[in-house]
Amino acid sequence: MTEIFNSYLYQPILAILIFIYKNFAFHDFGLAIIIFTLLVRVIFFPIFYKGAKDQALMQYLQPQIRKIQKDYKNDKEKQAKELFALYQKHNFNPFSGFFLLVIQLPILIAIYQIFVKELNNSAFDNLYFLGLINLGERNLILVVLTAFFQYFLAKISLFSSKNFSQQQQEKEDSVYFSLSKDFNKITVLLGPVLTVIILAVLPSALALYWLVSTVFSIFQQVFIINKKVNQYQAK
Q1: Treating both helix axes as pointing N-terminal to C-terminal, what angle do 11-23 and 96-117 enclose, rounded to 10 degrees?
Q2: Which of 4, 41, 63, 97 could cross-link with 165 by S-S, CB 3.0 to 4.6 Å?
Q3: Interhelix angle for 11-23 vs 29-43, to 10°?
Q4: Where are the beta strands (DSSP E) in 107-153?
Q5: pLDDT value at residue 181
Q6: Reduced DSSP (H G I as helix, E B as strand, rest coil) percent helix, strand, coil of the chain, to 5
Q7: Within the chain, how many helices (H) and strands (E) appear?
Q8: Which of 146, 137, 118 lies closest to 207 in space, CA to CA?
Q9: What is the DSSP string of 209-222?
Q10: What pLDDT, in 10s, does the model give residues 121-153?
Q11: Which strand (E) or helix (H) includes residue 138?
């Protein structure tokens, strides 16, 4: 299994990063990471886009899901049938996020291992980004920036959820909705907190990769919201 991982993921990704570093990034490791990250996001755009679109749709469906769960809380079989009918109507697979994560996880692990293990690789003779930040060391500024954009991305997603279903939410039980809002607040804060905890002890090369990927996700999320919100509300 390890040989397969090294042969088909680790080594090819490392070779691509080295190629970008030598030929397109002017031997600037930070620029190489940015170009590499954008390349990854473009290549896997359909996967990331599907995940973000399903997330937006899930947020739109939340009021209806909660209503079904409330109406049929004592009849689990009927509840399951109604939820299945709702998902089928909107062509939504509630497990798609899990499948997309499984597909992405090996790639993320490979990238993580490269940034941790290969910074002393002789191919990378300059670990600085624009001559200012040593990406082989920890950098609090990059960590904080990444956490901030993670928070901003979560707020955008939450804001889109409110826009999609505000009228429906207003009709819900106030106590239930209050719990939902509290959960949303926790979710918005959890991502940035975990980001700081994880990245604060790792080389800042990983923080830069995460930062660029998050900024890309923000633009992607805005694109999805602008494209889909009217479509959902028209249904």
Answers
A1: 60
A2: 63
A3: 120
A4: 128-129, 133-134
A5: 56
A6: 80, 0, 20
A7: 9, 2
A8: 146
A9: HHHHHHHHHHHHHH
A10: 888 989 999 999 999 999 999 999 999 999 988
A11: none
